[in-house]
Each structure stands twice: as C-alpha cells, then as structure tokens.
Design a protein that fits this description.
alpha+beta, two-stranded antiparallel ribbon, 2 strands, elongated
C-alpha cells in the first residue's frame, strides 16, 4: 500500500493488516516492510496456490482460497 501520509499512517496500516490477517489466518507468518510512505505485506500461500485459479486477484479471494484449502 502506497500513500503520502507519513510514518503514523504506515504504522496504523500495518497494525490494521495484522489484525485482519490474524483473524482469518492465525498460523500464517506475516512479513512486513514499512516505510514513511509504504506498507508491504508478504504472506506465503503455500505450494498448492495457483494465481490462475482466480478471475480477479484481490484480498477476499486470497483469504477464501487459503481458508478453504485448510479444511
């Protein structure tokens, strides 16, 4: 996520993403890179993940995929 809102916004965004991802994927390792204007989150989706299985690439699809694969 890129923005021009400063360090406090980056820290807030990182914490928000942690809360969201932890509620859906509590066992996944979350790797953040945060600067004054950027928050990058890296999450391993596993070796069976195939980006071509989705018509649109968005967070909702990724979460549905990962949660459903865990069942």
């Amino acid at each position: 996520i890129q923005h021009d809102l400063g360090t406090k916004w980056s820290v807030f965004t990182e914490q928000l993403l942690k809360q969201v991802f932890r509620s859906f994927l509590p066992d996944k390792e979350l790797n953040f890179q945060t600067t004054d204007s950027t928050v990058i989150l890296k999450v391993s989706l596993g070796s069976d993940f195939n980006e071509h299985d989705f018509q649109s690439w968005n967070l909702v699809n990724v979460l549905k995929y990962d949660v459903n694969k865990g069942q």
